[in-house]
């Protein structure tokens, strides 16, 4: 597979902080790379350097084997976290404004259909709901029919339904063959959308791989979960992890663990058994809970 983007030893130092401190990775054609990490890990700074908005302190970014040039801006799309859109413009006016900035553009009707904006075209963009606004920002990112698109926390602040709808849009963007680089705080989003994940902390990549491989590499156990009240005061021959109102048991042999719980006389009516998730991996690697 051809690499669309190659990043080598990328660094961005500010006077008091090493925001990005030696990051290297490649993004293959048509793939979705997710940058994950706790607050301040360096995700946005990385993506801003990839977008050409922030100048690296050192390191190299290659687009299709070449350093970034004027052609790069024409070929990439960016969905900003906080976009300074002009007041009073409608959705249609915004799309037309951004289309006027590029030589190659996606036909307006195709853009509107792709991002489901039909019903809001003549609305002032400040009057859009969170989900509608993100769809408009995605449409802006796609105006130049890019072959590489950057999405920085595209679903932060959306309700679960709007988030799911947005995931469908990202899938359809991928289905067009567009390469995607996104940052997210939502592990489910990363699991469902990303072919490849780079977990960042303190300006570095601390784990890298497909969601499935990362989980297989780090875990061979499952999580059994019971209400704390059910477990309280009982002798159980298993390592218990106490979490607020529940207790977790990590076990590579679920059948044996369940037998021990039965032997201890517990009711398993509220037992939950789940496989390990990216969220577990994230907490294990960074020691931090996710921001929701
Ligand atoms: N322009 C700047 N000047 C000084 N420090 C900065 C600047 N931009 C970012 N930083 C610092 O660099 C570090 C990385 O920030 P960055 O925004 O890249 O992290 P992030 O992983 O995107 O975090 P979040 O999830 O909160 O968006 C932080 O400590 C931040 O305060």
Give the neighbour order of strands across the main sheet. 6-7-8-3-9-10
Instruction: Note the gap between the termini.
Output: 35 Å
- Give helix and strand order, one letter per element, not per position: EEEHEEHEHHHEHEHEEHEHEEHEH
Output the radius of gyration: 22 Å
CATH superfamily of the largest domain: P-loop containing nucleotide triphosphate hydrolases
Low-confidence stretches: none
Describe the protein in words.
With 292 residues, the protein is an alpha/beta fold. It has two domains: 3-216, Rossmann fold (3-Layer(aba) Sandwich); 220-275, no CATH class. It has eleven helices and 14 strands. The protein has helices at residues 43-50, 70-75, 91-99, 108-114, 130-142, 160-175, 187-193, 211-218, 228-231, 254-263, 278-286, and strands at residues 3-14, 17-28, 32-36, 58-63, 66-67, 76-79, 148-152, 179-184, 196-201, 204-209, 222-227, 240-243, 246-251, 272-275. The strands form three sheets. Strands 6-7-8-3-9-10 form a six-stranded mixed beta sheet, with helices on both faces. It has a four-stranded antiparallel beta sheet with strand order 2-1-4-5, with helices on one face. A four-stranded antiparallel beta sheet has the order 12-13-11-14. Strand 9 (196-201) and strand 10 form a beta hairpin. Helix 5 runs parallel beside helix 6. It is globular. The protein starts with a strand and ends in a 6-residue tail after the last helix. Bound molecules: adenosine-5'-triphosphate.
């Amino acid at each position: 597979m051809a690499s669309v983007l190659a990043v080598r030893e990328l660094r961005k130092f500010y006077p008091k902080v090493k925001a990005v401190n030696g990051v290297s990775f490649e993004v293959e054609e048509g793939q979705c790379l997710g940058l994950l990490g706790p607050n301040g890990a360096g995700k946005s700074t990385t993506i801003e350097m990839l977008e050409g908005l922030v100048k690296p302190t050192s390191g190299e970014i290659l687009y299709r084997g070449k350093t970034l040039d004027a052609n790069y801006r024409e070929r990439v799309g960016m969905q900003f976290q906080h976009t300074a859109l002009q007041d009073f413009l409608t959705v249609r006016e915004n799309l037309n404004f951004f289309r006027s900035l590029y030589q190659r553009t996606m036909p307006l009707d195709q853009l509107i259909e792709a991002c489901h904006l039909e019903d809001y075209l003549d609305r002032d963009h400040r009057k859009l709901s969170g989900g509608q606004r993100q769809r408009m920002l995605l449409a802006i990112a796609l105006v130049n029919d890019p072959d590489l698109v950057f999405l920085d926390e595209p679903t932060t602040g959306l309700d679960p339904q709007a988030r799911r709808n947005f995931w469908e849009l990202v899938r359809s963007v991928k289905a067009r063959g567009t390469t995607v680089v996104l940052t997210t705080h939502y592990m489910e989003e990363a699991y469902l959308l990303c072919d490849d994940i780079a977990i960042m902390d303190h300006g570095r990549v601390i784990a890298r791989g497909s969601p499935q491989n990362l989980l297989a590499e780090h875990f061979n156990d499952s999580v059994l979960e019971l209400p704390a009240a059910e477990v309280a005061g009982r002798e159980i021959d298993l390592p218990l992890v106490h979490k607020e109102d529940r207790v977790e048991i990590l076990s590579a042999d679920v059948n044996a663990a369940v037998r021990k719980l039965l032997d201890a006389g517990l009711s398993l009516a509220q037992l939950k058994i789940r496989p390990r998730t990216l969220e577990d991996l994230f907490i294990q690697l960074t020691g931090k809970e996710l921001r929701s």
